[in-house]
Amino acid sequence: MKKIIFTDKAPAPIGPYNQAVLSGNTLYASGQIAINPASGELVIENINDETTQVMKNIAAILEAANMTFENVVKATIFIMDMNNFAAINAIYGSYFDEKTAPARETVQVACLPKNVNVEISIIAVQ
């Protein structure tokens, strides 16, 4: 059985998907981009602020599922420009203990929703 996870502290879905789905003890979170949930505006002034907003959105979804970044077992990072990797990685890494960080891949893509620079999805386990 699956349980839909939703919080108003993260951006509302803009299509036929949910913020996250909890199946058993596993949380599958949809990719998050840098939409400020309070204003609905994109946070894209610079890659640091953009990545921070993405991670805040993920944190809100994890909290809604009674989890933290310690529960994350897998992450996928999609970026528009691999030249932003170091900055994105530094912010992303600040949310994890390096010794227990999740598995991850980072992929450069041709385009992301709303022409953002970074999108991150996660899988977490209770």
From TrEMBL:
The UniProt record lists the keyword Nucleotide-binding: no
Q: Which Gene3D superfamilies match?
A: RutC-like (3.30.1330.40)
The question of whether Hydrolase is a record keyword is answered with: yes
- Keyword terms of this UniProt record: Hydrolase
A GO molecular function term, named singly, is: 2-iminobutanoate/2-iminopropanoate deaminase
What InterPro entries does its record include?
A: RidA (IPR006056), RutC-like_sf (IPR035959), YjgF/YER057c/UK114 (IPR006175)
Q: According to the UniProt entry, what is the EC number of this protein?
A: 3.5.99.10
GO cellular component, alphabetical, reads: cytosol
NCBIfam families for the chain: Rid family detoxifying hydrolase (TIGR00004)
Q: Which family does it belong to?
A: Belongs to the RutC family.
Q: What is this protein's record name?
A: 2-iminobutanoate/2-iminopropanoate deaminase
Q: Which organism is it from?
A: Flavobacterium bizetiae
